[in-house]
Amino acid sequence: MRLLDLSSPIDAGFWEPDPVVHTVMSAAEGARHMASEMKEHFDLDFPVETLPGGEFLTNDTVTLTTHTGTHVDAPSHYGTAAHGQARHIDQMPLEWFHRPALVVDVRDVGTGTISAERLKEGFDRIGRTPEELDIVILHTGASAYVGTPRYFTEFAGLDRSGITYLLDLGVRVIGTDAFSLDAPFTHIIDAYRRTGDRDVLWPAHFAGREREYCQIERLAHLDELPAPHGFHLTCFPVKLAGGGAGWARAVAMIED
Asked: Measured between alpha carbons, how far is 212 from 200 in angstroms, rounded to an integer?
């Protein structure tokens, strides 16, 4: 079994619409912090020079959104559900996140939308149509731009026919190497201004209000997979209570 990391990092050096703030407490600062906490909470005096080199443990404080880096969107992220209370990320079945997966190469689409017909062409090309609960991944090529503003404006996302087709097949986790499973915000808003058609407004996300499913966004390294199917994807989301999304370490499990 070979493991291939399909995750993009959380990196405070990347360009993000909502910047990541990453503060590191050094080991020396950790010693002073620990001594202060012991005094405040337990009235214990502890001289930091007792520790080797006057050091204790480092610590990281990170401020970020749940949609930074590779993450899984929960149904509650999509808004008010037609079927009642939408489930949060900590309530989703683990079985959804360790499944056979297949990749559809849609890099030829460029910036725009992916229809059901385009997906069918892709499945015909690789010789496999998704079965119920398979994970489908869109290879848009956007991961080449991760860490830059282009990552948020140059990729393809599903249109209404595309998302409906996958959900009809029984797919419940859909992935992409792009920022969003929908087309870029700029493309969507421009299309709406031109057409006045409300169906172009975030169809992939809004479909989750009617039918329960999850997205895994901001995948990476899809071009390193040896084949477009024949592997399992493991992408368990962090168990964030009441969260609309959870970060995930996405890993392809490949039989050699």
From this structure: 20
